């Protein structure tokens, strides 16, 4: 990850990441720490060992706040804790999600609500929590993780794909509403990133081979491949980019 470009404006910036201690989120935390940013992140499971590892690797320690993002009061409190520690949050990365596979005919109302709570509702309320601070500070960047799943109609997780599509609507309306405050809101849609969770639960040789065949680029995606796009969207290098969806998927879907 040391070959990433340096964005001087990110040095000292207060960054808040949901799900920042594992998978793609862990790579994002490291990426921002290497920029000299002040990083706070939330997740349910203990991340003390990860914070120790980050301090050893980067010389900086992220602030870990234990939080279930479906608990909106707890999420708001975590944002307030991070802002008190690091200053007003200037970069929010809504990264946490759950792509549990599910059968349309077996989805219950309870499962649907649970999926929306994690994959969409938490994004809105995290953004709502940071927006006043960004307004007062004169601007900021919100990056909402979506997915290519809804773009090519992937089967096997309709609630998740629906939330992904909703994230793009949320991104565009917030970009329009808060653009006058110099707050930029963009979405980032990864392809199939081979996190440890994906390898443990979903990856099969046949399924992975079929997916790579759909890609223009025939290499598999790793969490580190997503970091550069997020840093770009967070930095002033993208200061006139908002309401957009940046796709990093090896070329499964093409846009424009």
UniProtKB/TrEMBL annotation:
The keyword Oxidoreductase applies. GO terms for molecular function: oxidoreductase activity. The keyword Oxidoreductase applies. InterPro entries: KR_dom, NAD(P)-bd_dom_sf, SDR_fam. Keywords: Oxidoreductase. Residues 13-192 form the Ketoreductase domain. It comes from the Bacteria. PANTHER family: OXIDOREDUCTASE, SHORT-CHAIN DEHYDROGENASE/REDUCTASE FAMILY (AFU_ORTHOLOGUE AFUA_5G02870) (PTHR43639), SHORT-CHAIN DEHYDROGENASE_REDUCTASE FAMILY PROTEIN (PTHR43639:SF1). This is Short-chain dehydrogenase/reductase SDR. It comes from Rhodobacter ferrooxidans. The lineage of its organism: Bacteria, Pseudomonadati, Pseudomonadota, Alphaproteobacteria, Rhodobacterales.
């Amino acid at each position: 990850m040391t070959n990433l470009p340096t964005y001087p404006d990110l040095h000292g910036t207060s960054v808040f990441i949901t799900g920042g201690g594992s998978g793609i989120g862990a790579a994002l935390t490291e990426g921002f720490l290497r920029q000299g940013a002040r990083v706070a992140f939330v997740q349910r499971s203990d991340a003390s060992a990860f914070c120790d590892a980050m301090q050893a690797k980067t010389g900086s320690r992220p602030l870990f706040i234990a939080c279930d993002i479906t608990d909106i009061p707890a999420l708001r409190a975590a944002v307030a804790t991070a802002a008190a520690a690091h200053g007003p949050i200037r970069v929010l990365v809504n990264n946490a999600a759950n792509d549990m596979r599910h059968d349309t005919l077996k989805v219950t109302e309870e499962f649907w609500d649970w999926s929306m709570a994690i994959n969409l509702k938490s994004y809105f309320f995290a953004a709502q929590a940071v927006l006043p601070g960004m307004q007062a500070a004169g601007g900021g960047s919100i990056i909402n993780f979506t997915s290519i799943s809804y773009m090519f109609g992937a089967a096997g997780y309709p609630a998740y794909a629906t939330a992904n599509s909703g994230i793009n609507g949320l991104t565009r309306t917030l970009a329009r509403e808060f653009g006058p405050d110099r707050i930029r809101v963009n979405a980032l849609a990864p392809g199939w990133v081979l996190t440890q969770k994906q390898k443990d639960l979903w990856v099969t040789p046949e399924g992975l081979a079929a997916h790579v065949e759909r890609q223009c680029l025939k290499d598999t995606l790793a969490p580190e491949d997503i970091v550069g796009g997020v840093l770009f969207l967070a930095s002033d290098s993208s200061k006139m980019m908002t309401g957009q969806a940046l796709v990093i998927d090896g070329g499964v879907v093409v846009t424009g």
